[in-house]
Amino acid sequence: MMRHPFWQAVAILVLAFVAIEFGIPLLPGSAVVPASVVLQYMATVTVGVLIYVSDNEERWAQFQEPIHAMLVEPRLKAMRGTLLVAAHSRELPFECFQARQQRLAIVSKASHERILP
User: Fold this and answer.
1) Which of 22, 34, 101, 114 has the fewest CB atoms within 10 Å, i.e. the most exposed one?
2) What is the distance between the alpha carbons of residues 26 and 109, in angstroms, rounded to a whole number?
3) Among 9, 31, 7, 10, which residue's Cα sits nearest to residue 21?
4) What are phi and psi of 51, to 5 degrees?
5) Residues 74, 76, 78, CA angle at the centre, nearest 5°?
6) Which pTM was predicted?
7) In 10 A of CB 5, how many CB atoms?
């Protein structure tokens, strides 16, 4: 399954997000990465992945297969509906935003406590 270009691309994007969102703040002297910077980094990684998969015609065709299947195959109609509902859900992005704001508040408070005795 991981030999398929689509799943390789998904894995790279997930690993990049985890490294940017959670790995960078763990480095000594680093802070939480702002959401705008995470977006810029992820856009760069996405463009790089798309350039890689589209470089070879066979790999590009393989990459498109699962996307095409999801959009047109009748047996995946329920999955399309599930993805549509998930994509239009307002709760998940809001919960992620709240968790991020809480984490920023904790980091900010900790840094102020280090500066001020």
Assistant:
1) 114
2) 17
3) 31
4) -65, -45
5) 105
6) 0.69
7) 21
